[in-house]
Design a protein that fits this description.
- This protein has 4 domains: about 270 residues, Alkaline Phosphatase, subunit A, CATH 3.40.720.10; about 120 residues, 2-Layer Sandwich (Arylsulfatase, C-terminal domain), CATH 3.30.1120; about 100 residues, Immunoglobulin-like (Sandwich), CATH 2.60.40; about 160 residues, Leucine-rich Repeat Variant (Alpha Horseshoe).
- The chain has 27 helices and 19 strands.
- With about 725 residues, it is an alpha/beta fold.
Length: about 725
């Protein structure tokens, strides 16, 4: 990720081959390979499911089509998402990088990844593949025009040009969380289409031990399996279409779920119930040597693979299978193809802001043990998320907790705080309900996985400890989107006055260029990826746009033969947040500061020197550390005066943290005015921090309910959601 160029790459760029500048690893030779020498690829993805399928040994499931696919291919048993919710997951899949590295880790954020980051289908397009997506993106950034040949509800491999190999993605939303609780007439009609042997009897459901056994929970569990059966029928139809088109023997098929089941303590969480997913890959006989050169039988029918596989491995694996060089910045590793890497020792995962609930949780797992580090250990697991609270299972859990009747594992969810560390033996305890972190018998395992987590945090340059309002300002100062520079034609070759080939360049570092000859330049379809000089005839109009992930697209360029050429533009772009991060030692210093979590009451004294640090992120966590550890320390009057001084801090997040602490310590008169002032801050995430603090204050927020009512009309949906939750809670008292 250094951005340095070797001599060969410099000469490629200097000679006008913008393709090599835009798409590292692209080979002109790869594009000239005939379609018959390369497989097609079909991805069938579905949402919010764990490996709750018949082929994974689940006797409750009714999934004949997916089971048949597994009998014809490889069932992967240890596949894990890097987050428990769709958008951060899909951000990592499409880039081959961890969201915590590229700044797309908070749910529904607008990322500005480093300039070298591309959507991996660009590399396939440059190698001659027709790439089509139907139709979910949800990448934490708008997909650039260059990502897909077509991305729409009608996108299909059938739309490809003749003889082009294809990569087609079909995403099913049938199994989404929202459909588990959907009792609409339309859903009931769909469910009624299932035969009696396909419907799931709630009375026969085998519930995880962390759920209370109630009719609501059983109904949700049964409907979850019903919609999986509906999805299975859709999978069967797609596979039938592939067979009918005569493409099954030429197409490597992947079936996968985007994260764990859409129920409480699964989706959004980084327990295995939120991370472990199904993956089935069917490799036709003619491509098995390509997929596993040393052992083609390992991808034969009915095989099972227990290697650890992470979602960031999908992108490099696809490039490996397609014969495309894997860019050095990708963090995943190929598990198939000529560039297959050694199997993983660990997979890693992160939970950051989920909708309106802030968290910083990290996990590392080998084939047996799972380690979890809770950086916001002082918070309950049971934070309110309004969307999640619509699930009847969640409502039943909250009701029973309020009645004081929950016991055992279901009660864990409502514990007022979390352990700083969790350790689970996933073989003997697959539901992760017995924390072994304090057991001396597992001390060496804990130490090993803790060290693995620390190494991953440092090696991947984890951004999770930088407060979101601060990071938002880094990545997009003033909230303004940067616009990609317009492309220009810098060279024309060919002696004929009526024909030529033109070379296009763009000044914005990391930009890709989409072009078309004629047609409607306002359409989102029909654009080609620029990767070599474009042949152009007299009278033809060349349109081009430049795009870069996280930026606005450029203005449209129009060019005809005979128009003047431009000078090759110098690479340019506003300073990236990565530059600021690289120039400081912030991440390492944040790590050291958060190690004070282990010190209990002694952390109060250790946090004090950090209050005057030059970096607001450090000052923020110092205040939070004082606030959290103050409950252990008895008389902390000496700390209160230091925190009070932060009420006039230059950073709004530090002011909010200080005000929150002081309110908790009985100084509402000092803290509440600061929090209400922050509710008027121009940036949405600062207002979010303020309303979250008021939510956590509970009854102490009563004097400022009028301000909270105003926040309930906020332009930002998440701010509005928290405000409404606070108001509902007061109304219920």
């Amino acid at each position: 990720m250094s951005g340095n160029l070797n001599r060969r790459r410099f000469l490629q760029i200097a000679s006008g081959s913008v393709a090599t500048m835009l798409l590292p690893g692209h080979s002109l030779l790869a594009q000239s390979v005939r379609r018959a020498d390369r497989p097609n690829f079909l991805w069938i993805s579905t949402e919010d499911i764990s490996p709750d399928l018949g082929c994974y040994g689940d006797a409750y499931a009714v999934t004949p089509n997916v089971d048949r696919l597994a009998s014809e291919g490889v069932r992967y048993d240890n596949v894990f998402a890097h987050a428990g919710v769709c958008a951060p997951v899909r951000s990592g899949i499409i880039t081959g990088m961890y969201p915590t590295t590229i700044g797309t880790h908070h749910m529904r954020c607008a990322g500005v990844p480093p300039h070298e980051v591309k959507c991996f289908p660009e590399y396939l397009r440059a190698a001659g593949y027709y790439c089509t997506n139907n139709s979910k993106t949800d990448y934490q950034f708008d997909p650039p025009l260059t990502a897909w040949d077509e991305s729409s509800g009608s996108a299909h491999w059938r739309n490809r040009p003749k003889d082009n190999p294809f990569f087609a993605v079909i995403n099913f939303t049938t199994t989404h969380e929202s459909q588990i609780r959907n009792r609409s007439e339309a859903m009931l009609t769909r469910l009624a289409s299932l035969s009696p042997t396909e419907r799931h009897n709630p009375a026969k459901a085998q519930l995880p031990p962390y759920y209370p056994d109630t009719p609501e929970v059983r109904q949700d569990w049964a409907q979850y399996y019903d919609i999986i059966t509906l999805m299975d029928k859709q999978v069967g139809q797609v596979l039938e279409d592939l067979e009918r088109d005569g493409l099954a023997d030429d197409t490597i098929v992947w079936f996968w779920g985007d994260h764990g089941r859409g129920l409480p303590r699964a989706k959004r969480w980084i327990y295995d119930s939120g991370l472990r997913v199904p993956l089935i890959i069917r490799v036709p006989a003619k491509w098995r040597k390509l997929a596993m050169p040393d052992k083609p039988q390992a991808v034969g029918p009915g095989t099972i693979n227990d290697d650890l596989i992470a979602f960031v491995d999908f992108a490099p694996t696809m490039l490996s299978l397609a014969g495309v060089e894997i860019p050095s910045h990708m963090q995943g590793r190929a598990f198939l193809g000529r560039r297959k890497a050694r199997p993983r020792q660990y997979i890693y995962a992160a939970r950051d802001r989920m909708d309106e609930a802030y968290e910083v949780i990290r996990a590392v797992r080998d084939k047996r043990f799972k380690y979890i580090r809770n950086y916001m250990w002082y918070l309950t697991r049971a934070q309110d998320i309004r969307y999640m609270n619509e699930m009847p299972t969640m409502q039943a859990m909250r009701r029973l907790h309020a009645e004081g009747v929950l016991e055992g594992p279901p009660k864990q969810y409502f514990e007022p705080t979390k352990p700083i560390e969790e350790l689970y033996d996933t073989v003997s305890d697959p539901h992760e309900i017995r924390n072994l972190a304090g057991d001396p018998a597992y001390a060496k395992v804990l130490e090993r996985l803790r060290a693995a987590h620390e190494k991953w945090y440092k090696d991947t340059r984890d951004l999770g400890l930088i407060p979101e309002p601060i990071f938002d300002e880094w990545k997009r100062p003033g909230g303004e989107f940067e616009t990609t520079s317009a492309p220009v034609v810098v060279r024309r070759t060919g002696r004929s006055a009526e024909r030529g080939a033109v070379t296009i360049a763009c000044a914005t570092r990391g930009a890709s260029v989409a072009y078309r000859i004629g047609g409607d330049p306002q359409s989102r379809t029909g654009w080609l990826l620029y990767d070599r000089p474009v042949p152009l005839g007299l009278g033809q109009t060349l349109y081009a746009k430049a795009c870069r992930i996280g930026f606005r697209d450029s203005d449209l360029m129009t060019y005809r033969l005979g128009d003047p050429l431009a000078r090759r533009p110098a690479s340019q772009g506003a300073g990236h947040w990565q530059d600021k991060l690289d120039a400081s030692n912030l991440r390492k210093r944040l790590w050291r500061l958060k190690e004070l979590d282990y010190k209990g009451a002694n952390a109060v004294y250790s946090c004090l020197p950090y209050l005057d640090d030059a970096e607001p992120s450090i000052r923020y966590w110092a205040v939070v550390g004082l606030h959290a550890s103050g409950g252990f320390a008895g008389d902390i009057a000496f700390a209160r005066s230091a925190v009070k001084a932060r009420l006039v801090d230059s950073s709004v997040v530090v002011r909010i943290a200080a005000a929150h602490a002081l309110c908790d310590w009985g100084a509402e008169a000092d803290g509440l005015p600061v929090l209400t002032a922050a509710l008027k801050h121009p940036t949405d995430k600062a207002r979010m921090f303020a309303i979250v603090a008021l939510d956590r204050l509970g009854p102490k927020a009563a004097p400022v309910l009028d301000h909270i009512r105003v926040a309930a009309e906020d332009a930002d949906d998440y701010v509005k959601r928290v405000a409404l939750t606070v108001l509902n809670r007061f109304d219920a008292v």
